[in-house]
Write a structure and sequence with these properties.
The complex is a heterodimer.
Chain A: E1 16-26, E2 31-41, E3 45-50, H1 56-63, E4 71-76, E5 79-80, H2 86-91, E6 94-97, H3 109-114, E7 120-121, E8 125-126, H4 128-142, H5 157-170, E9 175-179, H6 187-202, E10 206-211, H7 214-220, E11 223-228, E12 231-237, H8 243-251, E13 269-279, E14 285-295, E15 299-303, H9 310-317, E16 325-330, E17 333-334, H10 340-345, E18 348-351, H11 355-359, H12 366-370, E19 381-382, E20 385-386, H13 388-402, H14 418-430, E21 436-440, H15 448-463, E22 467-472, H16 475-481, E23 484-489, E24 492-498, H17 504-511, H18 525-528, H19 534-542
Parallel strand pairs in A: 3-10, 3-11, 6-9, 9-10, 15-22, 15-23, 18-21, 21-22
Antiparallel strand pairs in A: 1-2, 1-4, 4-5, 7-8, 11-12, 13-14, 13-16, 16-17, 19-20, 23-24
Helix pairs in contact in A: 6-19, 13-14, 14-15
Chain B: H1 3-31, H2 35-47, H3 50-75, H4 83-99, H5 106-135, H6 139-160, H7 185-190, H8 204-221, H9 223-233, H10 235-240, H11 245-261, H12 263-272, H13 283-293, H14 298-321, H15 327-363
The chains are: A alpha/beta, B mainly alpha.
Chain lengths: 543, 367
């Protein structure tokens, strides 16, 4: 386990756990899987990477019996395997940890785990003590640190995910499929998840791990299958490859994993937030006494675990939510309490956190979506009428400039890939020289190629003198783009740094309340960053 | 929209109508009549003569208005069940203004009454619109309740305040002649279409066709329509784009109510020339069925209303010449609607599978 090349070698047998041969699945408009071969050895962590739409999820759905393939064959543990549904897959020892958790909030952890397969007492009653004991045993064995009696509703996302994993183990799975498991986790939770997965591997279990994050793959996986456009483009040992090579296999061309960035040249203050307080749901104070300044030509990155008030902060700035106290000013003009339209019209662009909830009308065409938010302004609208000509021209231009696919202004936004949906929003919002760009999770769930595009666009705009407020849970994104980095934790700005003055690890700690938050602006706080954080200890143990 | 999606939206009503006729045929057989005979009588009743065709269009006319009302609100994400109440209020206001127009020339009286009808319906619909926008109260409950109130209030006024003197019938006196719409028989005869003079088809149908165009134009060509559709499809995104969602809810509801109110142009201005208590006989509710069948598009509403006009007109003949009660037509209409909804679900599920295939392929975000 010490050298990268040799890790797991002692445990990984040459026996094959899963063998998929020439699996093909065609949907009416796409070939989702085109003669895909997948071979997963027993006891290995096998990553399947690829951009969105490469066919990873379809392949796993085939394996789990959720989708029946048009052709191809499968072997599980050497036996021919053609599941009619997930039941067959579970019986064959395959367990799936879904991206979206399926837990009952009002039940305890133990009850959730045994749901559907409860240990019985006297035939009809659920034997809750037996359930608790079994869950406790599993929890101890793999370091889940779960209290079986605790209710699910209060759990963090990371813990909920562990409950899902225990659920799968409880049903006797020896092969675990995890679909994009890290998307919702904090950096520390990711480390903890990885150490759990490693201990599962040591117990002889086989893990199939779907992701599009290259760092994770290299850190965790033993072997990697890369997919693109429904085909396998490579199978490599994790120790013998690089991020660049993987990215190339995924995208089919050279990709800049980190956009080059010149030092910023900040000018006058554009956005000025003072003493802002915003109420969240259930009357809690989601944002507390926040001060912010973003200057022209500067990207201010706000790092933070989702749910620490970023959404409320952004919505208060963009007029979508009323601030309880404090003020928001744009170039000295007070924007507090203005309508969203008013804020937009004064030059604020907003890339929203959730593209499908806020950013797009999925049943509108691409052209209609590209004018969304400025549909009421000339030249797109005049005397109450839409100017379809101008709207069409704008669509053609933006599709062209931003290489949106498909190149058809008449196609519905809902039929676009996630990456293209995001590109659509970015293209729309960044067009027309905004004074301030508020970008919230701008690359969430989009693939490597689109990430490069979004990052490039934001930097270009900065260089043209726009102020950019970037909110992201993706630390690498914050690090790559920001000129100034602030950390938001529980509704407050707990620290702020210049670019290059802080490491990802330190940010990770601050984001989860580690480190001496009150010393916020101190540049030397990093040395004092607490070791109280439990994740840190465990990471040490697992390294 | 993909070609398949377009095909679905046209095909599902057609399939449903065909299937409904089949089911109706079984009912007819159960009664002991021959389906072929009944259907031939039904369609002869509707298409057999110029006179009957005139009736088809006349019967379709109010359904076009109420169908548009439901469809328009639906595009804003609102379910307006209150067409019945709105058409009563619109008609009542129309008659009330019409009674006072003695001496006003037709060129002024007709537009004034059209406006009064629309305004009455719009005002009545504004109430649930406002309650929804301001307090988030569901419009279905409020529109239903406002139907009762409208029916009760108009009844009260007709019987107790505005009843024609010396008459037993609960109706008002005739509105000013200058506010009455001409029948179309004369005009059609002069171009060689032999529509009998007694046929009630009147100029309201031209207003109805105008309304179909207006609904389409508002929804697809105006900034207001764009905003209304955005609110209907994704209110949260609409808010993000700077659209005043609450205002749009009220405005959409009022436009919807105005369409319902325009029923008065056929019933008051073009046919009865007076307000008759409880005249509607569910025209407002039939509008829901018409909108459903017409897929909530203005053109679809036009065709669906005409189909219902055919069924309603033919039903009379069926009643006279067979042992099948005219209520069979009601059954047919209801079965059609159910089948439209089912066919729609089935076909859109198919559609969604196709799209999902492509989209999950494209996004792979959901497990």
């Amino acid at each position: 386990m010490k050298s990268k090349d040799g890790r797991g070698a002692c445990l990984m047998s040459e026996r094959v756990a899963i063998e998929m041969r020439e699996v093909t699945k065609r949907y009416p408009r796409v070939l989702a899987n085109d003669r895909v071969d997948l071979s997963v050895r027993e006891g290995e962590i096998h990553a399947i990477v690829g951009e969105n739409g490469a066919g990873k999820s379809t392949l796993m759905k085939v394996l789990y019996g959720l989708v029946s393939p048009d052709s191809g064959s499968m072997l599980v543990g050497g036996e021919p395997f053609s599941p009619a549904g997930p039941r067959d897959a579970i019986r064959a020892g395959i367990g799936m940890v879904h991206q979206h958790f399926m837990l009952v909030d009002t039940l305890s952890i133990a009850e959730n785990v045994v749901l559907g397969d409860e240990p019985r007492a006297r035939g009809v009653f659920v034997d809750s003590r037996a359930a608790s004991e079994r869950v406790e045993r599993l929890s101890r064995e793999y370091g889940f640190e779960l209290d079986p009696r605790e209710k699910v509703e209060g759990l963090s996302v990371g813990l909920e995910q562990r409950v899902e994993i225990v659920k799968v183990l409880y049903r006797g799975a020896s092969i675990l499929i995890l679909d994009e498991p890290t998307g919702v986790l904090t950096p520390n939770e990711v480390r903890e998840l990885f150490s759990i997965l490693r201990s599962l591997r040591e117990s002889g279990r086989t893990i199939v791990f779907i992701t599009h994050k290259l760092d994770e793959v290299l850190e965790l996986a033993d072997r990697i299958t890369v997919m693109r456009d429904g085909r396998v483009t490579g199978v490599v040992e994790a120790g013998l490859t690089t991020r660049e090579e993987l990215a190339h296999m995924m995208v089919g061309r050279e990709v800049l994993l980190r956009v080059s960035k010149s030092p910023g040249a900040p000018g006058e203050t554009i956005l000025s937030v003072r003493g802002l307080a915003v109420e969240g749901r259930k009357g809690t104070e989601a944002v507390r006494n926040v001060d912010l300044d973003v200057r022209s030509g500067e990207i201010l990155g706000i790092a933070g675990v989702q749910g620490n008030g970023q959404t409320e902060l952004i919505e208060a700035i963009t007029g979508l939510r009323t601030a309880g106290a404090g003020s928001v000013a744009l170039r000295g003009v007070d924007l507090t309490g203005r309508s969203p339209r008013n804020v937009r019209d004064s030059g604020v662009a907003h890339i929203p956190e959730d593209r499908q909830e806020r950013g797009l009308v999925l049943s509108f065409t691409v052209a209609e979506n590209l004018v969304f938010g400025r549909h009421h302004r000339a030249p797109y609208s005049g005397r109450g009428l839409l100017d379809l000509g101008a709207i069409g021209e704008r669509a053609e231009r933006l599709i062209d400039e931003n290489d949106l696919r498909p190149r058809d202004p008449g196609s519905l936004a809902g039929s676009l890939s996630g990456g293209n949906q995001q590109k659509l929003i970015v293209a729309r919002e960044l067009d027309g020289r905004p004074v301030l760009v508020v970008a919230c999770q701008p690359t969430r769930g989009v693939d490597v190629g689109a990430i490069e595009f979004v990052h490039r666009s934001l930097l270009d705009l900065r260089d043209e003198g726009a102020a950019v407020l970037l909110v992201s849970a993706e630390l690498s994104e914050i690090m790559a783009l920001s000129d100034t980095i602030a950390v938001m934790y529980r509704g407050e700005m707990v620290a702020s740094f210049g670019a290059g003055e802080v490491t990802e690890d330190e940010l990770g700690l601050l984001m989860t309340g580690g480190g001496d938050a009150r010393e916020g602006r101190a540049r030397d706080h990093a040395g004092g960053a607490g070791t109280k954080e439990p994740g840190a200890d465990r990471r040490g143990g697992a390294a | 929209m993909s070609r398949f999606a377009k095909a679905v939206s046209v095909l599902s009503p057609v399939i449903a109508v065909a299937a409904a006729l089949l089911v109706g045929g079984l009912v007819v057989m159960a009664i002991g009549e021959s389906p072929l005979r009944v259907y031939s009588i039904l369609f002869r009743g509707a298409f057999g003569s110029v006179d009957s065709l005139g009736y088809v269009v006349f019967n379709a006319c109010p359904l076009i208005f109420t169908g548009l009302a439901v469809a328009f609100a639906f595009r804003a994400g609102l379910f307006n069940i209150g067409g019945e109440g709105q058409l009563y209020v619109g008609s009542f206001v129309c008659a009330w203004v019409g009674l006072k127009l003695g001496g006003v020339p037709a060129a002024l009286a007709v537009p004034l009454l059209v406006l009064a009808s629309a305004a009455g319906g719009a005002a009545w619909a504004a109430i649930p619109g406002f309650l929804k926008a301001r307090f988030g109260v569901h419009e279905v409950i409020n529109t239903i309740m406002l139907n009762f109130i409208a029916i009760g209030l108009t009844s009260y006024f007709v019987i107790n305040v505005f009843k024609e003197p010396g008459q037993m019938t609960p109706q008002t006196a005739e509105i000013a002649a200058s506010g009455q719409l001409p029948r179309l028989a004369g005009a059609l005869q002069s171009v060689g279409i032999p529509l009998p003079a007694a046929n009630p088809l009147n100029a309201s149908i031209l207003i109805a066709l105008g309304a179909v165009w207006a609904a389409w134009f508002i929804l697809n060509r105006t900034t207001l329509g764009y905003e209304i559709r955005a609110v209907g499809l994704n209110p949260s995104a609409a808010e993000y784009a700077g659209i005043n969602v609450r205002r749009m809810l009220v405005v959409a509801m009022m436009i919807s109510g105005a369409f319902a109110g325009l029923v008065a142009t056929n019933e008051i201005m073009g046919f009865r020339y007076r307000y008759l208590d409880n005249f509607s006989a569910q025209i407002g509710f039939m509008g829901i069925a018409v909108a459903l069948l017409g897929k909530n598009t203005p053109l679809g509403v036009l065709f669906a209303a005409l189909l219902f006009g055919v069924l309603n007109t033919g039903a009379l003949e069926v009643d006279v010449f067979t042992d099948v009660p005219r209520e069979l037509i009601l059954v047919l209409q209801a079965v059609t609607i159910i089948l439209v909804v089912v066919a729609n679900e089935v076909l859109t599920k198919k559609l969604r599978e196709r799209e999902a295939g492509a989209a999950s392929q494209a996004t792979e975000e959901s497990a």
